[in-house]
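# step 3/5: fold
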Amino acid sequence: MRFYLASTSPARLATLRAAGIEPILIPSNVDEDAVAAAAGPLPAAEAVQVLARAKAEAVAGLSVNGEPIDGVILGGDSLFELDGAVYGKPHRPEVARERWNGMRGASGLLHSGHWVIDHRGGVAGDARGGVSTARVTFASDIDDDELDAYIATGEPLQVAGAFTIDSLGSAYITAVDGDPHAVVGLSVSLTRALVRELGIPWHSFWNRGAS
């Protein structure tokens, strides 16, 4: 059984590989801002579900190397919620710095939306979605020089909440309450549950790739 990931996220790829799955990557090229604007104001947990669904549906019906998608598609998206404010990717250093000024010594919620489509036989069929949320607590002793050095790496600019748990940002996280994979952006346990709801054994994806 083939597993298609509607993303080029290195963190999601590494997470699936660690779980024994070699996914086929297909960039969704979804305009996240446009999708969010069309959906209107939503709680963070609902917004990530809308975005995850849009990404999965954007690749449904496509072909890979001239062959139709034959397997399961997963779309995902993440947002970070701190004191009622919802944050996606900061993109700019000054925005990342502003957010981190409020994150030092604080806790927030990382919401990761998942949408799975049964696309066996090259046809989009049943689908399932869900959200995994984890509370993340950050160190209070991060000084300005250390924060500037982290932002200068560029890592926090392209990730939800301006931090990672699987790379440089891990040094600044003191606790995670919930599924740590949710913080990466792909909950393996939730994905398994969604796939099983489609009637597909999780182990059917183990160590399978495009070959």
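# step 4/5: annotate
Helices lie at 10-18, 32-39, 44-59, 93-103, 144-152, 180-184, 188-197.
# step 5/5: archive (pending)
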